[in-house]
Design brief:
The protein has 1 helix and 2 strands.
Length: 72
């Protein structure tokens, strides 16, 4: 189950139907779930990049211009 902004999205993987040996996957539902997952991952990546940029901006304010060096 994928949690996104207070909502739950059920991933339709491994649903079993009596009489069938293999799990049944609803292709349309799986596509929708994968699109939602892609969207969530893009949001997370964007937020993570913004945090890194803010962190390095703050380091620059203190005179640290690259990891392991400082301006003197």
């Amino acid at each position: 189950m994928l949690h996104r902004h207070g909502h739950h999205v059920r991933l339709p993987i491994g649903q079993e139907v009596r009489g069938l040996a293999e799990p049944v996957v609803d292709a349309v539902a799986l596509d929708a779930a994968l699109r939602e997952l892609h969207h969530v991952l893009a949001e997370v990546a964007g937020a993570s990049q913004r945090r890194c940029e803010t962190f390095f901006d703050e380091l620059n304010e203190f005179g640290v211009h690259s990891v392991g060096t400082s301006s003197r």
